[in-house]
C-alpha cells in the first residue's frame, strides 16, 4: 500500500460481524514465556507504527468490539468512525497488563491526558456515542441490520477525500503528524517544507487553472 500510487485512502474494517478487533489472543499469550511475550508485543508495536506511517489517509471502521490491541489499531489510523453500539477500550489493566502497541501514547494525543489516564487506569469500555463525545472517533452512526454502518460511513468519508489532490493530502498528513511532535515554531518550519514540495506539482497548477476556468479540477497525483 505504501508504494502503490493508485491508493488514495485506506479503510480498515473487519470481516467478522460485531467485532472490529478484539485484541490479542490471551490463550495464545498464556503459552508464551517472558521473552516471547516481549518479542510479540514489539512486533505488534512495529505493525501499528507501519500503519500510522502510511502516507495516505487511513480510516478505521469500528462496527463492533475494538478492545486492547484492536483499539490500538484504530488509534494508529488517522480517522475513526464507530457504530453507536460499538464497544471500545484499552482493557489491558483488567488482565494485569498495560497497553503495549501504542495505546499509552496515541490515546492521550487523541483525547487528552486526563481522559486517557482514566480509560487506561480503569480499563473501562465505552460505546460509540461516548467515544464521539470525547473525540476518540470522528463520527458515530446507528448500527444497521447488516452490521456495517460504520464501514458505510467510512466509505462516504473516504469518497470526500478521494477527489482532493493526492500529493497535497499526503503532505498535509505529513505536516500534521510531524508537527504534533515538536514545538509550534518547528512545526511551522515543517509545514513550510511540506508546502515547498507541493508548489511545483502539476496538481497545484491544475487546481489554479480549474479555479480560473470555473470547472472541477482533475488531479492526477503528480
From TrEMBL:
GO terms for cellular component: mitochondrion. The keyword Lyase applies. GO terms for molecular function: enoyl-CoA hydratase activity. InterPro entries: ClpP/crotonase-like_dom_sf, Enoyl-CoA_hyd/isom_CS, Enoyl-CoA_hydra/iso, Enoyl-CoA_hydra_C. The lineage of its organism: Eukaryota, Metazoa, Chordata, Craniata, Vertebrata. The keyword rRNA-binding does not apply. Belongs to the enoyl-CoA hydratase/isomerase family. Pfam families: ECH_1. Signal peptide: none annotated. PROSITE patterns: ENOYL_COA_HYDRATASE. This is Enoyl-CoA hydratase domain-containing protein 2, mitochondrial. GO terms for biological process: fatty acid beta-oxidation. It comes from Phalacrocorax carbo. Keywords: Lyase.
